[in-house]
């Protein structure tokens, strides 16, 4: 537990600092109210709005841990949203629609996984194919229209409330927790890390790296399907052109803010979803703080830059030095010899 | 003295890597620096080349104190270094590599013709005439090594540090590099030579300094020194005789595995081979003779296209490493950095990785059991580490090799292939690994040992198979396992090693 806290400390500190910063501009940011069986307030809004990126970041963390990247998750969101909306409109019922959407996400992930793991195509290029093609597929499914629906059950996924919190918030928290639990309670986490660090050596040690890689892309596809469902349910319509547009980049950013290396290996899903929260806090915070909307993207970019610079490995020795000097200053009276040597 | 080091001290958290070490180097001298892994050789060199800051002591070059802050500064002061892995750019031409960063220019543009001429002139000093327009990578490692030396000497020109320059060279290539080094010595350079190969140290060096555990234990003239004394200095204990004697010649073994007509085009010609329980099979041959290819074929890494493998129970599937592992095979590969260790995982994770992969992801090995396994192998193989949670990438080469071995031992295979198990390993770890081989066979594990060191093969093998030109050409047993016989079989009608012929002008 102490190890986990140490791993998450930079992200938690960044998140706390951001919340503090936004509160300085917009004191009502921390306001929470309970009414009508649900909690509401800007922070709850952050939890809810972070859902698509947090879901994508959960799957993306695994892909990046294997030294890969998945650029297609935004397009997969569009496909899955289109599939679900079409199924609902066709009157197949909610369970079938959800299963079909998840199935479409898994199939898309399988496609990526086979290109990467079996055919050996660079992940960047392999997933670029589906990124390009995916929105076309989604348009074919919706026949080029924004397909709206009125199913209350489906809409609940995007805007409903359960146990006082928005359903999308529960969805990403549960998904991330389930992934983290499965990966760390089984040996999957270690095998994924080993494959990401040295696929060849892992294969020689008997790790079935090919199957593992495919599974990781399928997991990313499933996460994208959930994200697609949330977005589609929220606006009660499947928009093939705009659902999840550019969200793959936010997901990658969340993983990176989470301190996960793009070179693969050690990963932390918890850190990635905190990264997603950081991104969402920035987005909502800028709006609430009342900056003109044309500044939003620039401020967001600058804040992200600051966070990444503070986390950079080049600065790590400085932090260490700073901490050590503090500790030395504290211990000096007790240990007089330390300085003489 | 050209270079004098006095009381050099360097401390890392938890260890004193160098403890008041003295070292000096005369002009026109080759001074060998020896020691086990972790003795402090690389730390000494890194302090000298500015890669590390020293914590205490003085370095004097030609009478003036120096304190290099970077390798570039060390170079400008006159100290150049050539590493084991050639640190040049293989996809640039020879000329570009030699002149990189100081190309002759006119109005900011590189004068290619002048650059080529200068490069050729530099190489002429080394008795090399190469096509300087060819990519460096198209030449043999020995030539690349000499180009690296030429570049280092041109840039610095007083002290040349050779850090294991011969680790990936064959005998003829080593001679080539040594001729170059002797030429430089004659020109008055001071040369620091780090090597694990004692023969080479005796062959090349004028003086020897031995480090152990961060301290200097001896500096002596090479010709006053005998092999046993030197090894004693390095180990600080008597080298155990067991490792020096041939394997006890034991009777015939109960048969276990039978390979018939196994082969793969372009890798190794079809061969037959039998392995008995607890038997050690040695594979001898030059680099590129098909030794490693034989190992890769048996382990399903590059699976056989022809032939069959069977045991007492029937046919074996060796089509992938996973299949081979299921058949009870193991392979500790030659290149442990790329094929063996998973550098960013801990020692514990590296050791349990194979076992875990075989059990499947859904049945994790309990953490307590992992800890027990890791502690057990750290103790049994004497892996030098501060703890089981240390990243394997931070260990020295010999200890990394032991971690890879531990991974396989934990899986308890019946047939373990060891490809160059002692390459790049110091004398102490070397002896330990040979002893380990003895212990394993006593438990009935069969081994296939690939080694370039004939003495080592003789010491461990029940039978030796000799390869030449990707073909199994001879099998020796009993009294026939002797250096002369093995050399004969390797040499028979085979051509000289390809690399020796190339470019040795």
Automatic annotation (TrEMBL), chain A:
GO terms for molecular function: transmembrane transporter activity. GO terms for cellular component: plasma membrane. This is Monosaccharide ABC transporter membrane protein, CUT2 family. It is found in: Cell membrane. Keywords: Cell membrane, Membrane, Transmembrane, Transmembrane helix. The chain crosses the membrane at residues 12-30, 50-69, 76-104, 110-133, 154-183, 203-231, 243-263, 269-290. It is a multi-pass membrane protein. Signal peptide: none annotated. It comes from the Bacteria.
TrEMBL record, chain B:
Coiled coil: none annotated. Residues 3-238, 252-494 form the ABC transporter domain. It holds the Pfam family ABC_tran. InterPro entries: AAA+_ATPase, ABC_carbohydrate_import_ATPase, ABC_transporter-like_ATP-bd, ABC_transporter-like_CS, P-loop_NTPase. The keyword Cytoplasm does not apply. GO terms for molecular function: ATP binding; ATP hydrolysis activity. It is found in: Cell membrane. It is a peripheral membrane protein. Keywords: ATP-binding, Cell membrane, Membrane, Nucleotide-binding, Repeat, Sugar transport, Translocase, Transport. GO terms for cellular component: plasma membrane. This is Monosaccharide ABC transporter ATP-binding protein, CUT2 family. It comes from Paracoccus thiocyanatus.
């Amino acid at each position: 537990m102490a190890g986990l806290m140490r791993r998450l400390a930079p992200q938690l500190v960044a998140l706390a600092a951001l919340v503090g910063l936004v509160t300085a501009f917009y004191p009502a940011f921390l306001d929470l109210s309970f009414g009508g069986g649900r909690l509401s307030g800007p922070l709850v809004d952050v939890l809810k709005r972070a859902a698509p990126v947090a879901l994508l970041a959960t799957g993306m963390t695994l892909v990046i841990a294997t030294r890969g990247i998945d650029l297609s998750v935004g397009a997969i969101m569009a496909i899955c949203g289109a599939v679900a909306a079409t199924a609902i409109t066709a009157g197949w019922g909610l369970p079938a629609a959800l299963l079909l959407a998840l199935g479409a996400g898994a199939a898309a992930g399988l496609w990526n996984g086979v290109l990467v793991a079996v055919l050996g195509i660079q992940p960047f290029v392999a997933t670029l194919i589906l990124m390009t093609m995916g929105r076309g597929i989604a348009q074919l499914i919706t026949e080029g229209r924004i397909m709206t629906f009125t199913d209350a059950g489906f809409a609940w996924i995007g805007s409903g409330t359960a146990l006082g919190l928005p359903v999308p918030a529960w969805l990403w928290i549960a998904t991330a927790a389930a992934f983290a639990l499965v990966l760390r309670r089984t040996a999957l986490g270690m095998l994924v890390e080993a494959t990401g660090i040295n696929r060849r050596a892992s294969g020689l040690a008997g790790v079935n790296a090919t199957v593992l890689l495919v599974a990781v892309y399928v997991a990313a596809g499933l996460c994208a399907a959930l994200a697609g469902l949330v977005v589609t349910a929220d606006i009660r319509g499947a928009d093939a052109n705009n659902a999840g547009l550019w969200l793959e980049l936010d997901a990658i950013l969340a993983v990176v803010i989470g301190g996960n290396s793009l070179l693969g290996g050690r990963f932390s899903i918890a850190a990635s979803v905190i990264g997603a929260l950081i991104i969402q806090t920035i987005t909502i915070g800028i709006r609430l703080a009342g900056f003109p909307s044309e500044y939003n993207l620039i401020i967001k970019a600058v804040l992200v830059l600051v966070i990444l610079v503070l986390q950079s490995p080049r600065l790590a020795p400085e932090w260490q030095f700073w901490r050590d000097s503090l500790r030395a200053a504290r211990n000096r009276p007790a240990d007089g010899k330390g300085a003489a040597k | 003295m050209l270079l004098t080091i006095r009381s050099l001290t360097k401390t890392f958290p938890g260890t004193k890597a160098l403890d008041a070490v003295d070292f000096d180097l005369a002009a026109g001298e080759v001074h060998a620096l020896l020691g086990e892994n972790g003795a402090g050789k690389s730390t000494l060199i890194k302090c000298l080349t500015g890669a590390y800051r020293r914590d205490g002591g003085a370095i004097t070059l030609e009478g003036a104190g120096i304190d290099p802050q970077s390798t570039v500064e060390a170079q400008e002061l006159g100290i150049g270094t050539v590493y084991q892995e050639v640190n040049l750019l293989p996809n640039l031409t020879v000329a570009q590599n030699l002149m990189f960063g100081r190309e002759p220019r006119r109005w900011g543009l590189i004068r290619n013709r002048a650059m080529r001429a200068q490069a050729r002139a530099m190489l002429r000093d080394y008795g090399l005439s190469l096509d300087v327009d060819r990519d460096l990578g198209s030449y043999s490692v020995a030539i690349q090594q000499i180009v690296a030396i030429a570049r280092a000497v041109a840039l610095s020109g007083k002290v040349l540090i050779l850090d294991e320059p011969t680790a990936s060279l064959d005998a003829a290539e080593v001679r080539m590099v040594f001729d170059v080094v002797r030429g430089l010595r004659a020109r008055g350079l001071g040369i620091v030579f780090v090597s694990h190969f004692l023969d080479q140290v005796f062959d090349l060096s004028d003086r020897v300094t031995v480090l152990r555990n961060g301290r200097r234990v001896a500096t002596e003239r090479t010709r006053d020194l005998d092999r046993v004394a030197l090894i004693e200095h390095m180990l600080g204990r008597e080298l155990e005789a067991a490792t020096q004697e041939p394997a006890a010649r034991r009777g015939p073994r109960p048969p276990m595995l039978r390979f018939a007509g196994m082969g793969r085009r372009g890798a190794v010609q079809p061969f037959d081979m039998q392995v008995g329980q607890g038997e050690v099979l040695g594979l001898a041959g030059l680099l590129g003779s098909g030794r490693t290819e034989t190992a890769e074929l048996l382990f399903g890494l590059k699976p056989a296209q022809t032939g069959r493998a069977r045991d007492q129970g029937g046919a074996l599937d060796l089509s992938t490493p996973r299949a081979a592992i299921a058949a009870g095979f193991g392979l500790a590969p030659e290149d442990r950095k790329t094929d063996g260790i998973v550098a960013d995982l801990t020692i514990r994770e590296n050791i349990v990785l194979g076992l875990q992969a075989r059990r499947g992801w859904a049945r994790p090995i309990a953490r307590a059991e992992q800890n027990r396994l890791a502690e057990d192998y750290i103790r049994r193989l004497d892996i030098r580490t501060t703890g089981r949670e240390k990243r394997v990438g931070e260990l020295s080469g010999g200890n990394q090799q032991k971690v890879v071995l531990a991974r396989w031992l934990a899986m308890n295979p019946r047939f373990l292939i060891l490809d160059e198990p002692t390459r790049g390993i110091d004398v102490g770890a070397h002896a330990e690994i040979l002893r380990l081989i003895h212990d394993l066979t006593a438990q009935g594990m069969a081994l296939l040992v690939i080694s370039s060191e004939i003495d080592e093969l003789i010491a461990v093998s029940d039978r030796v198979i000799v390869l030449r030109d990707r073909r199994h050409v001879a099998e020796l047993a009993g009294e026939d396992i002797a250096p002369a016989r093995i050399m004969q079989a390797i040499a028979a009608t085979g051509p000289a090693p390809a690399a020796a012929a190339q470019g040795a002008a």
